[in-house]
Design brief:
The protein is mainly α and about 210 residues long. The chain is about 75% helix and about 0% strand. The protein contains 9 helices and no strands. The protein is elongated.
Length: about 210
């Protein structure tokens, strides 16, 4: 019995080991790519540089992803994961202030802002590897802001006549639009503009 068990283990072991190594290498690639993109941006970063940094050829790098577009989309997903662990709120947008904090942080990683803006536009195509990621991301962000607006309306801090869903969509539009303006004009203050927008939405406590 013990011999049979040992034989079975030896057959499954390498497969499991290879799978684990593949997952670990994929994570190493994403972490490295995240660092490279943060500094050099979408056009400045090269697959060759990322591949060399993790000890692979370009072909070896893309062996772990279906295409470079999938790699780019996964880098953004990795960024969300890193932000979730680093941000005091777990990276989850729970209201206006959290969104402003995230936008303010983005000013420190211009390359990732460039990557996000580029890939989000390309992902409008249903066949793009990042399409589902962005659909879910926008739905989550808008849903969180919408609920925040409802909560603030109940607390008397936002005009109850405003449509929470429309306010949420406008908030994300301002945040994303300011990222594009900032890439074209470094003097544009993304966080300050977003805060100003929210100041027009908020009102003092009901009396």
């Amino acid at each position: 019995m013990s011999t049979a068990g040992s034989s079975a283990g030896s057959k499954s072991g390498p497969k499991k080991g290879s799978y684990a190594k593949g997952i670990a290498k994929r994570e190493e690639i994403l972490t490295t790519a995240l660092e490279v993109f943060a500094v050099k941006g979408y056009r400045g970063a090269s697959l060759r540089e990322i591949a060399t940094s993790v000890g692979l050829s370009q072909a070896g790098l893309l062996h772990h992803f279906s295409s470079k577009e999938e790699l780019f989309a996964e880098v953004l997903r990795k960024r969300d994961e890193v932000d979730e662990h680093a941000h005091p709120d777990g990276g989850t947008v729970r209201g206006f202030d959290t969104l402003v904090d995230i936008v303010r942080h983005n000013a420190d990683v211009p390359g990732l802002v460039q990557l996000y803006a580029t890939i989000s536009a390309e992902a409008a195509d249903d066949d793009h590897p990042g399409h589902d990621y962005f659909v879910r991301r926008y739905a989550t962000l808008i849903g969180a802001i919408e609920q925040h607006v409802r909560d603030e309306q109940e607390a008397g801090r936002i005009d109850p006549s405003l449509d929470p869903l429309q306010v949420a969509r406008m908030a994300i539009a301002v945040a994303d639009g300011m990222q594009v303006q900032w890439m074209l004009d470094g003097t544009a203050d993304m966080a300050a503009t977003l805060e100003y927008f929210f100041s027009m939405i908020r009102r003092g406590p009901a009396t």
